[in-house]
Design a protein that fits this description.
Two copies of one chain form a homodimer.
Chain A lengths: L2 H27 L4 H10 L17 H12 L8 H22 L3 E2 L2 E2 L1 H5 L1 H21 L5 H25 L7 H26 L4 H28 L2 H4 L5 H4 L5 H9 L1 H12 L5 H13 L2 H21 L5 H15 L4
Antiparallel strand pairs in A: 1-2
Helix pairs in contact in A: 1-3, 1-4, 1-16, 2-6, 3-4, 3-8, 3-16, 4-6, 4-7, 4-8, 6-7, 7-8, 8-9, 9-15, 9-16, 12-13, 12-14, 12-15, 13-14, 15-16
Chain lengths: 341, 341
């Protein structure tokens, strides 16, 4: 496939999956108590603060992985629908709580739930989405519903471990590249891995297929995080929606930064000194970005992202799954990790 | 049974159930990530801040209900053990989040988790306990594990609805007695009802027995909340551990207060005016307590607590369950609602 064919395939698969999951997700959110429903509906981009319709929210990457993984197991996408709803609910539970913990007042140029309604609302609505995810899965008719709900519970604890490490790392100056990778595996990789596995699980796929899909999701997640960290420094603000050099401005110990600090020789030492200081002068920020690059952080992260994406594709190549589902999964993985940086 | 026999039976049943659930609960908490494990262990009263052993925490009422409900269904208590662990985990998830939302810096004369470790820690550890509850249930060997996990998820959403209403009511001056009762049914009743049902569910009890146990738990919960609200005004500080007239000091719209405001004639009008003000002069607090009493709030709450406890006993009388389990459940219900006020 050419890059543009890949991208078209991914965009079409995302649209098809989103059209499938949205009504089911809306049906689930409709069950919430009135306050949680209003806040979840706003957070998901379905309504604006004045009650007018919203622009529809995110790409729904995790539901797409869940539905494509159902098709990869040879079942119709509908079999994995409760799984697709559940992973999107868990993703949004974690966003509601993370925005509050990180003190972020905006997400995608809109006020966050805690900033608008207060901390208790974000805590309770997040809690409700997590409980709802389990509820939806256990109501499904699949004989594998309990296994899928168990996967969701274990994944949630992995997410929490990753977020707890992220919070703890902010107070530490000596975080290693391996610790950073393990944190990202919890915070980003675990839910993408579960998303890519849950559909196959609900479809009763053989363990080898489910494991391959899980590995695919975990490796795509690792590549995605590396690319995200590169965009956080060198991303085009008109594309990322974040200010230029955003992650350096907040002194985030992202993967390229951590690599350069530990393996970048003199540049790494200078970068570590800058991180410990408090200057956010534009000239200093540009100098810090140059130090990450001189220290090898940019090249390492780009190469590691490519290596992880190729491991993802290799995992799928090792099992017998329908070619259309495989092509769509690979296209989606590349679409998520081939972004410009 | 005399009052003192009832109390002895209840205390012995609580001790026996607590001895059963504690090792299983510790095994569950041991699985948490290090930060969540440390905070959960402190919160549960197993360790102190300096790492020394704690005094062991609460009475574990909910696990006791779960284990007695298992025996009421004719099964050994061990069958309901995952349910007992799960309800205690959910109870503590809600305490961790509620303490943060309510801004409470102390619980049972010890610093709360958010006050000690910060808000993110209380959010994440609470989230982890909720996920762990589902995980533990779905690992149990009972063929009814999925039904029990589904009950836990639905109950969690009821808890959240109750807490959301509680938060919203603080900003409203016109909350009715029925709204207050519905809020308490969510915040206190739902988890006690689920605790009294979950053991029977795991034991595969017939629907009539499970429903009777559920009603028992819900009615005990209602009676318990009414008594708790009476103690919040007239409780002996050396017994409750809270300052005298505590709930009036915080202007809590508790059940006796709400009743007096709506049905207390002139006393109710004066009480409503005081609630809208900001005086916390000791004389004014005593005057407010007298207004709740003149307005009929004290008598109504005491009578309603007795009525709810007798509905609880009536529910158990309607089904065929082993006499020992019935006697222990009734004794436990009375023990929780016969407190001095």
């Amino acid at each position: 496939m050419t890059a543009s064919t890949t991208s078209t395939t991914a965009v079409e698969a995302l649209r098809r999956c989103r059209d499938l999951v949205t009504p089911a997700l809306q049906g689930a959110v409709d069950r919430l108590d009135p306050a949680s429903r209003e806040q979840a509906s706003y957070h998901l981009g379905w309504t604006e603060l004045d009650g007018s319709p919203g622009n529809g929210g995110g790409k729904a990457v995790r539901p797409a992985l869940a539905l494509l993984s159902t098709e990869a197991a040879g079942a119709p996408a509908g079999v994995g629908l409760p799984g697709a709803v559940a992973v999107e609910l868990v993703h949004n539970f974690s966003l509601l709580h993370d925005d509050l913990m990180d003190g972020d007042t905006e997400r995608r140029h809109r006020r966050t739930v805690w900033a608008q309604w207060g901390a208790p609302s974000a805590i309770l609505t997040g809690d409700a989405l997590l409980a709802l995810a389990v509820e939806i899965l256990l109501e499904s008719e699949s004989p594998h519903a309990a296994a899928a709900a168990s996967l969701i519970a274990r994944t949630t604890r992995e997410l929490i471990r990753g977020q707890a490490e992220d919070v703890a790392f902010e107070r530490r100056g000596d975080v290693s590249v391996d610790e950073c990778l393990a944190m990202a595996a919890g915070k980003t990789g675990s839910l993408l891995a579960a998303s890519a596995e849950i559909g196959a699980l609900l479809a009763g796929a053989c363990p080898a297929v489910a494991a391959a899909l899980r590995t695919f999701g975990a490796e795509v997640g690792a590549a995605f995080q590396l690319v995200d960290d590169l965009l956080g420094i060198w991303g085009d603000p008109t594309v990322t929606g974040k200010p230029v050099l955003s992650d350096l401005r907040s002194r985030k110990k992202s993967l390229p930064v951590t690599y350069a600090v530990h393996h970048g020789g003199a540049a790494g030492v200078e970068l570590a000194c800058w991180l410990a200081g408090s200057s956010d002068d534009e000239k200093d920020l540009r100098r810090a970005a140059a130090l990450v690059e001189t220290g090898g952080g940019r090249d390492w992260a780009a190469a590691e992202a490519r290596r992880r994406m190729s491991l993802a594709e290799k995992a799928l190549a090792g099992v017998d799954i329908p070619p259309v589902a495989r092509a769509e999964l690979v296209a989606l993985g590349r679409h998520l990790t081939d972004r410009e940086f």
